Amino acid sequence: MVKNFNLMKIKNITCIGAGYVGGPTMSVIADRCPDIRVTVVDMNADRIAAWNSDHIPIFEPGLDVVVKRARGKNLFFSTDIDASIKSADCIFMSVNTPTKTEGEGAGRAADLKYIIACAEQIARSAQNHTIVVEKSTLPVRTAEKIKEILAKNSKHTFDVLSNPEFLAEGTAVKDLENPDRVLIGGENPEAIAALSDVYAQWVAKEKIITTNVWSAEMAKLAANAMLAQRVSSINSLSAFCEATEADIDEVAKVLGSDSRIGPKFLKAGIGFGGSCFQKDILNLVYLCEHYGLTEVAAYWEQVIVMNEWQKKRIAQLVIKKLGGSVKGKKIAVLGFAFKKDTNDTREAPAISVCETLLKAGAEVVIFDPKVSENQVADDLLHLSSQPSQFKCVNSASEACLGADTAIVLTEWDQFKSIEWLSIALKMSSGAWVFDARNCTNHTAIRAAGLNLWVVGKSNQSA
Ligand code: NAD
Ligand code: UDX
């Protein structure tokens, strides 16, 4: 296919990576830009098959409707990566960038093997001039490396832009349709303008921020670090509240009403999870160390230290409140996803809490409205001494049957209206509810005669 770049107008997008970012982002672009052909490719054939089916592989409110509207018209999901690269005038790289598990920087640096593989494949297959867009979250100065690979392995020309994604899971469609901002970093104003024109089809021009490439790469890491820092800050204060009879809701309300602080991201809980915060802060820490900024690295590392502490502290507190041992005790875990409205369990605090409880000999019964039994097994099987130590059930009520305690680990809306009165009758006498998300009906729990502990609150039962 011959591409027309005289006007630097994007007509044919390919996105490599059909995951939590590539799938939703491209679906919304296709939906909002009917004149652009969008193809999402992935080496995972099962994932692509799911995107082409009635059961798309990601649970995101509203996403199935958007996909259905555009799929087969100007939105396509395919495993034919080379053909799709060939026909594209703009290629998004939306592949995973996990923390390295071996080699230099293991445990901290981002593993760029998938990005490098993408760049090499683009260099092999691209025709004419192509805009290559970094959609994945990447270390500062990755664009330099991508340019080198492209220049070395292709006779064609490229522009490399950084266009990091700020969507949060559970609100991805809303975030994409009405973003706080779109960030485009680049060198060539024509390429920046071409990508801006795509977003400008539904995003107000003043919300499209353009910067140099390095600022864009850096700003994404910085945004995640600042957000995670707020969660660790409020969680640190939750422990302080528990020790002093202050109330975290009241404290957060006061903090949030200061317009300089703002009310969002001040919900104390079990700690942050998800595929991004920890990995991106670790990456930031690694980069700071690389540039000799030891104190800066140590500062950001504390955000993760506090997060780990919160998860462990609450799991240990459950054991302590249950008399110092949970061996043979039955524990209902309500919520397994790392936050509500997603089926994603990557870095879910529930995994860490379950690990502590399973290792202490508890029997764990899990209910999550969207996480599959297979996913839970993948996450927990290597942590339990015997597979029969944990199981999944289909309702909160079933999970609590005969349980010594229930722990709420995800703030699913349905947990607000659990019928504690009838559930309490099925639980052991003297049973506890640990609300590690501060999201249940505390009056109803107390009225049902259950002992209650809530994160960031004093006056806990027993
Ligand atoms: P994901 O693991 O859900 O999806 C990545 C996909 O890329 C996988 O399906 C994988 O098979 C595919 N892939 C990897 N290498 C490939 C290759 N060479 N060719 C074809 N396909 C390939 O990851 P994700 O959650 O979508 O994250 C992608 C990037 O976006 C990461 O850098 C992440 O940090 C960033 N990000 C994620 C979120 C989020 O909420 N998940 C938000 C903002 C940014
Ligand atoms: C995050 C960023 O918000 C998003 O901009 C980026 O693109 C990807 O990483 P995500 O991880 O999907 O998004 O969800 P987010 O809403 O940020 O929540 C992350 C974790 O922090 C969750 O475990 C959540 O429960 C926790 N959290 C968040 C709190 O415990 N309290 C809060 O007040 C906010």
Mean pLDDT: 96
CATH topology of the largest domain: Rossmann fold
Known CATH architecture of the largest domain:
3-Layer(aba) Sandwich
State the major sheet. 6 strands, parallel
Overall shape: globular
The strand line-up of the biggest sheet is 3-2-1-4-5-6
Query: Strand-residue fraction?
Result: 5-15%
Proportion of residues in helical segments: 40-55%
Which hetero ligands occur in this complex? nicotinamide-adenine-dinucleotide, uridine-5'-diphosphate-xylopyranose
**First-residue to last-residue Cα separation:** 72 Å
Number of H/I helices: 17
CATH class of the largest domain: Alpha Beta
> What is the SS-derived class?
alpha/beta
Number of domains: 3
How many β strands by DSSP?
Answer: 14
Radius of gyration (Å): 24 Å
Q: Could you list the spans in which at least 5 consecutive residues all have pLDDT below 50?
A: 1-6
Write out the CATH superfamily name of the largest domain: NAD(P)-binding Rossmann-like Domain
Structure characterization notes:
The chain is of the alpha/beta class. It folds into three domains: 12-211, NAD(P)-binding Rossmann-like Domain (Rossmann fold, 3-Layer(aba) Sandwich); 222-304, N-(1-d-carboxylethyl)-l-norvaline Dehydrogenase, domain 2; 308-454, Rossmann fold (3-Layer(aba) Sandwich), CATH 3.40.50.720. It has 17 helices and 14 strands. The chain has a six-stranded parallel β-sheet with strand order 3-2-1-4-5-6, with helices on both faces. It has a six-stranded parallel β-sheet with strand order 11-10-9-12-13-14. Helix 5 (113-125) links the parallel strand 4 and strand 5 (130-134). The chain starts with 11 loop residues before the first strand and ends in an 8-residue tail after the last strand. Bound molecules: nicotinamide-adenine-dinucleotide (NAD) and uridine-5'-diphosphate-xylopyranose. Residues 165-169, 224, 227, 231, 265-267, 269, 272-274, 276-277, 338-339 line the site of uridine-5'-diphosphate-xylopyranose (UDX).
